[in-house]
Specification:
By secondary structure, this protein is an alpha/beta fold. It is built from 14 helices and eleven strands. The strands form two sheets. An eight-stranded parallel beta barrel has the order 1-2-3-4-7-8-10-11, surrounded by six helices. A two-stranded antiparallel ribbon has the order 5-6. Helix 3 runs parallel beside helix 4.
Length: 338
């Protein structure tokens, strides 16, 4: 059975007076739960520079806090940080926060991880951008050890611990599902080492047209990896399977949840073009069903719907349409009691 999640823009819930419409946002998530959606996603940024805010928005609620609030408003839907920029946090306190939210939600938390890419954030926090991959890997290994052991010990480059016991533990054992964001070779290696879910983007966040128009601002910047088409998804899974087989890890239960973009040729996929053409995956239609079906054939086990619209009401309308017109064609009908 396929899974379907939602990722709702937070800026559209900000009122003109600068107050976040928490109740309205929660009502969207509660409606999605009733419609049968499986996950709700919260992204992670502390701030973004203007050149990125033009694309991905400038409003970012702290994800642990937001998902804790949504946990109290829902009963079934899984709450996923997708994805936490791991180097920004100290791993022991983060492990405790993850386990706490898993406990408070009754075992409904999913933990997405990425190394990050925004130079401005890393410089502001005094962190070495060039070491973000190594920091991410070490911090996740530490968290796994903390969740899995009553006497956690680890010796690394950044942190060392000896026989510590951090409580509470996660509800799901040995720990919450770990979602690996991205589609670079390094991301795929993380999938092989400790991933339970691979979560690639199916569109290019910054396309060539935007790069050309903003060359000065983007010069020397690390940009997000993305544009995972069905063909690239298939190749990525082939690499993951080969590496897992060689390393002796069983990934037969690996989930692959894609945030898809426009139906495009296999060598192109862009967020900018989707906006220009006025087409969104959440709007449904046979073209979307065929496109998502290609991902399923390539190995996808689920999708994330990012509903368009300039209001929470418009987002709900799109989620209803997608649930009524697209999901049944891909996965069969769902009931409100699911």
């Amino acid at each position: 059975m396929l899974t379907f999640g939602i990722s709702v823009r937070q800026d559209i819930a900000m009122r003109a007076d600068g107050v976040f419409d928490a109740e309205g946002y929660a009502e969207v998530v509660m409606e999605a739960e009733q419609l049968g959606y499986d996950h709700v996603f919260a992204p992670d940024h502390v701030f973004v520079p203007p050149y990125m805010a033009k694309i991905i928005g400038d409003t970012w609620l702290e994800p642990f806090t937001l998902l804790t609030y949504l946990a109290a408003k829902t009963s079934r839907i899984e709450l996923v940080i997708a994805c936490l920029v791991v180097p920004y946090r100290q791993p022991f306190a983060t492990a405790e926060a993850v386990a706490t939210l898993d406990q408070l939600s009754g075992g409904r938390f999913g933990f997405g991880v990425v190394p990050g890419y925004l130079k401005e954030e890393f410089e502001t926090f005094g962190l070495p951008l060039e070491e973000r991959g190594a920091m991410t890997n070490e911090f996740v290994r530490i968290m796994i050890e903390v969740w899995s052991s009553d006497a956690a010990s680890y010796e690394g480059k950044y942190y060392t611990c000896d026989g510590i016991n951090v409580k509470p533990k996660c509800v799901r054992r040995p720990h919450v599902p770990i979602w690996i964001g991205g589609s670079s070779k390094q991301a795929l290696q993380r999938v092989v080492e400790f991933g339970d879910v691979w979560h690639p983007l199916g569109f290019t966040v910054i396309d060539e047209k935007y790069k050309a128009a903003n060359a000065g601002e983007l010069a020397g910047k690390a940009l997000p990896t993305s544009g995972t088409t069905p063909q690239r998804l298939r190749h990525g899974l082939e690499y993951v399977k080969q590496q897992a087989d060689e390393g002796g890890r069983d990934l037969s239960s690996l989930q692959v949840v894609v945030l898809p973009g426009l139906p495009v040729g296999e060598e192109e996929s862009s967020l900018a073009s989707s906006k220009e053409e006025g087409f969104q995956v959440a709007e449904g239609g046979d073209q979307v069903v065929d496109w998502l079906g290609r991902y399923v054939e390539a190995g996808a086990t689920g999708f994330v719907v990012a509903p368009p619209g300039d209001s929470l009401e418009e987002c709900v309308d799109h989620l209803r349409r997608f649930a009524a017109e697209v999901i049944p064609q891909l996965d069969g009908p769902r009931t409100r009691s699911r």
